[in-house]
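Blinded run. Sample ID left blank on purpose so nobody reads anything into the name before looking at the predicted structure. Input follows.
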Amino acid sequence: MKKIIIIVFIACIALSSCGKKDDSKTETNEKSSSQADATKTIAKEAYIYAYPMVQLYGIIYSYNINSKSPEYKGDFNKIHNVPKVFTPADKAIVTPNSDTPYSFLTMDLRAEPIVISVPEIEKDRYYSVMMLDLYTYIYGVIGSRATGNGAGKFLIAGPDWKGEKPEGIKEVFRCETQFSFVCFRTQLFNPADLKNVIKIQDQYNAEPLSAYLKTTPPPAPPVVNWPAFDPKVAERDGMLSYLNFLLQFCPVDKSETTLRANFEKIGVVPGKPFNEGSKEASLINAGYEEAMELMKETTEKDLKNKVSSGKFFGSREFLGDNYINRAIGAELGIGGLIGQEAEYYPMKTDASGQPINTAVNKYEVTFKAGDFPPVNAFWSFTMYDGKTQLLIENPINRYIINSPMLPNLKLNADSSLTIYIQKDSPGKDKESNWLPAPDGDAYVVLRCYWPKEAILNGTWKAPAITLVK
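Blinded prediction complete.
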């Protein structure tokens, strides 16, 4: 009897031991799976976080670093005016407007602040000076709505500056990154007005604080070894390589301490090479695919639901940790203004929800009498190629129809306005209202500068583009 009991006991121990080994293996697999999921999730978040920053770096590299670029403007800390509206030849920025000649300023704020001076501008002319940090957060705006059309001097300080506002400075703007991109927009009323815009642009000025104060400048900051930017490289691991480079100029915000610590787990470390080809490469690549798919799905959903463009552009305080909106803003048109400054209505589909294809179709959009966009400045329809989001070549070199053109547009008998969207002329009698379209997919953006409350609160609705049957 004792022998039988012993045998049964030993058998039970053996079975119990086998069960523990299986449980251990299961726990190991579950832990491994959990770690893999975590790695993929972190990579997905890192790519969404990186996307707008890398897009902005591409612009800065083209404008201020690569002197061989056809888009090259010149050195840092100097304003570079573009004394014309954008045309199809301008390719560095997607979805540019063609209403306001631009001026650009990329600031290196490591050594000292920069002082921006603006002249007095006539009250009817809209202008704005928008300041982006390296995250693409808009941390300040100077201009008609924000500060008025009077002359003024404004100080832009980086994260390391500890000084006080000097005498003669109207306002101090603080940038949380060591480099900043500034975009000036100056309204052009008509082609003959260009000479007046140029006079204004020539009066914009930027100078180091020491030059403004007439004091000895501080030591020059270290020379930066800028990596060459290639849009084909700025994907997958390459995007995170650019992110690593940029983050060395971006002190960690306290709200992102955990996020940035998580990024380091997959090799996103400020100033260090990204660990391309690591054993986690397949998981990181899967995170990239998920990030790009999420951006695509969210963008399509937002466009379909006519989500306000004001959701995509703004300060850190406004956007918070909504990194997907920050990325979508860069995709739709990097450098878009905050909602109070401009509201954008991007249109890739017609009234029935079908893609706008002007290779074979003709379209119209009509503003009812008395129902033009309610704005303090002006509104504008701009045509782009649906795939590249760049302005298109056309036989009459017209890229926009805007409110300053109203005196030369033909109203309908009931005082409504119809704009004809097609690749070929609608005929001489309608050509004044023709917005030339591409031979393929089209992308149209309605911009409303300095919108009134009816736009901001959503009670005014933009008219839909309709297919002509």
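Unblinding after everyone has recorded impressions. The CA atoms of residues 408 and 432 lie 7 Å apart.
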